[in-house]
Amino acid sequence: MYDTEKGVKELIDLTPFEEKDHGTGIDVPFFDFESMLAATNNFSEENKLGKGGFGPVYMGKFPGGEEVAVKRLSSVSGQGLEEFKNEVVLIAKLQHRNLVRLLGYCIRGEEKILLYEYMPNKSLDSLLFGESSSQQLDWATRFNIILGIARGLLYLHQDSRLRIIHRDLKTSNILLDAEMNPKISDFGLARMIQGKQTEANTLRVIGTYGYMAPEYALDGLFSVKSDVFSFGIVVLEIISGKRNMRFYQVKDDAPSLVGDGWRLWQEGKALDLMNERAGSNCNESEFIRCVHVGLLCIQEDPSERPTMGDIVLMLSGTQSSKLPIPKQPAYVIRRPLSATASLYSNAETNTEITSSIEEGR
Question: Regarding the domain delimited by 124-343, which CATH topology (the fold level of the hierarchy) does it fall under?
């Protein structure tokens, strides 16, 4: 029964997840806390890979030599037991080459820990925006990363046995393996769509500013099309090597990456978005196609955004018909931080928003 949508929802809703409560329906191994201490050298700073909204991530190594990534729930994290259960139950039932693989979990009192396959090239944001802006990200690598993310989202939305909306897709949640294959991670905020349901509503909006679709940020409405919006932002960041939002480096009403992309597209100068590190071997037709698809994804009206199935066909060049003309996207002009933040604080609906933590994994 735990392979059905109803069964998985009941498992998430009912399982208490107390220490060693690794019961029926949980498809990943339980690890004791002592083995976590040994694998991470007592969670030493030397083993620390980075930090996300969930908490710090450490390199772990078991006696046989297997390397793992150990994610430790922070006591001050905005994410808690509900998000932890989401990861343990949902991601264990998802199998795709472009999704990170959960290897196990651990609970000891207030300690909640997740074990993942180790990604030697860390997170996409650390390579795109890190101090050295890695030379590894030539155009072919960037395009393959975009395609891999699209295929992973298509699996979540359409092809997996459980249909999932990720709700927090961003470059820091894309991990890269030894061959630079992208793997979507961090399913703590993910939600399952049951039956013929295509969208849902929440009074607790949690996500990352700069990647959130307007209908989700303002009204709490999320769907596969809100993931599509986030994907469009990620595409623009990958091809340009620039962050969509960085409050402390801009003046009021300065254009965001979205605004720059839209302006250049309208002026017929989309190639000016190209990151200089990708330029030497860039396939210009692929680049223009990526800009086009990215702008289609971030249109303000969700019904006008393509599905991930359409996007995969567009990117692969197998869609014979001409691509639709994108309409003006949401968030073309960046508001000052103080003005923007006020849009998302509503005491009556208990709305929350988290910011990206710009630190590699």
Answer: Transferase(Phosphotransferase); domain 1 (1.10.510)
Please answer whether residues 87 and 69 qualify as being in contact, where contact means their C-beta atoms are separated by less than 8 angstroms. Answer: no
Q: Is 32 a catalytic residue?
A: no
Q: Which two tokens stand for residue 164?
A: 């999932």
Q: State pTM to two decimals.
A: 0.84
CA atoms within 13 A on the CB side of 339: 7
The CATH number given to 5-117 is 3.30.200.20
> Per the structure block, which two tokens stand in for 149?
């993310």
- Please pick, among 125, 168, 186, 260, the residue that the annotation labels catalytic: 168
Q: Estimate to the nearest angstrom the gap between the alpha carbon of 51 and the chain centroid.
A: 15
From the number of C-beta atoms within 10 Å of its C-beta (0-12, 13-18, 19+), residue 106 rates as buried
Note the maximum CA span of the chain.
60
Residue 159: count other Cβ atoms within 10 Å of its Cβ. Answer: 12
Task: State how far Cα 149 lies from the chain centre.
Answer: 9
pLDDT in tens, the chain (361 residues): 445 555 555 555 555 555 545 555 577 788 899 999 999 999 999 999 887 767 889 999 999 899 999 998 866 554 567 778 778 877 777 889 999 998 988 888 778 888 999 999 989 998 998 765 555 789 999 999 999 999 999 999 998 878 899 999 999 999 999 999 999 998 888 888 765 555 566 656 777 888 999 998 888 888 999 999 999 999 999 999 999 875 434 444 556 899 999 999 999 999 999 987 776 788 999 999 999 999 999 999 999 999 999 999 999 886 656 899 999 998 765 554 433 333 333 323 334 444 444 444 4
**CATH 1.10.510.10 intervals, the chain:** 124-343
